[in-house]
Amino acid sequence: MTPRPIADAHVHLWDLDRNPYPWLREAEPTGPFGKTARIRHSYRLADYLQDAQGQEVRRFAHIEAGWDPADPVAETRWLQGLAEAQGAPHAIIGHADLAAAGLGSILDAHARASPLFVGVRDRLQQEIHQGGGAPDAAWLAAMARRARASERARPELRPAIAARPDAAGRRAGRCHPRLRFVLTHAGYPPRRDDPARDLWRDGMRRLADCPNVVVKLSGFVPPSAASTRMASRPRSGRSSRASARDASWSPSNFPVDRLFASLDALFSAYREALGLSSLADQDRMLHDNACEVYKMG
Fold it and tell me: What is the C-alpha separation between 172 and 142, in angstroms, rounded?
């Protein structure tokens, strides 16, 4: 039986021979996912398609990949060239400092560079990467300023919230209902023994009251974590009665998660977790929701 189709909503491509990626050029950088030596090489469209072979990936969205922040629009231009020449990606989430002066001009430049530009991701992740719990007042104020700036500049965009869900996501969603927010990687759930775990769980419940905040169930490695966490289905999204399958989806975060598992193992875990769901629910989680949110047709 042919597996259900997938629209991968979180892919990074990079070409180290042509383009600048400061975080990949350091000697031995570390981050929340550990050392990056094993992915410090070009990861092109052909590499992703090889990794995804046999998983029926029909579309994918490219998420900004740490390009030189001095010229984030150059990444969008490069990706548009790939789409014209090779047929993918099918949506582009670019980078912008949402607190920068002249934000509207930056976002307009992204839009001129590619009709596939549908969203933006800012780098408001320090409290996560440093292992903190709830963000402090200054961090929340910065998040609010960025949301206001994004709403004024281009209200049709999908800003990505790279944060834990305890306060930032809910505040942004409630105060800026014209924007469609995407909570990246399930709000970065802490380890089970981390005191911040309860804050994360409570935040996910509260986000159910924000119909304009949707959740990416991604970043689950090893693959067994994907089955466990998807099966638990933290509630979030379109109504307080909605389950995660109504408002979230199952992206790969490749090649970053290649540090821990193959893409085949990851998507197989997603499929296993959804195995008892109806075909309609499987299609929503694996394909349709990502296409709707990121306008992939």
Answer: 11
Domain with residue 271: its CATH number is 3.20.20.140
**Is there a domain that residue 58 lies in?**
yes
Contacts of 243 (CB under 8 A, 6+ apart): 233, 235
Count of domains forming the chain: 1
* Residue 44 in tokens: 């092109």
Q: Which residues contact 261 (CB under 8 A, 6 or more apart)?
A: 221, 222, 223
Backbone angles phi, psi at 20, to 5 degrees: -90, 130
Q: Give a yes or no: residue 1 inside a domain.
A: no
Classify 109 as helix, strand or coil: helix
Range of the domain at 270: 6-293
Query: How far, in Å, CA of 212 to CA of 158, rounded?
Result: 10
In a domain, 80, yes or no: yes
Residue linked to tokens 């821990």: 260
| CA–CA gap between residue 225 and residue 253 (Å, rounded) | 14
Going from the C-alpha of 2 to that of each of 60, 190, 280, the distances in angstroms are 19, 35, 15
Count of beta carbons in the 10 Å neighbourhood of residue 239: 11
Q: Report the distance separating Cα 98 and Cα 100, nearest Å.
A: 6
Round to whole Å and give the CA distance between 267 and 59.
Answer: 14
30 lies in some domain: yes
Q: What is the pLDDT along the chain (297 residues), one digit of tens a residue?
A: 678 999 999 999 999 998 888 888 765 556 556 677 889 899 999 999 999 998 999 999 999 999 988 899 999 999 999 999 999 999 999 998 877 778 888 888 999 999 999 988 876 554 444 444 444 555 556 666 666 666 666 767 776 766 666 565 666 667 777 778 888 888 778 778 888 788 888 888 877 778 888 888 887 665 555 444 544 444 333 333 334 445 578 899 999 998 888 999 999 988 888 887 889 989 999 999 999 999 998
* Residue 286: count of CB within 10 angstroms of its CB: 27
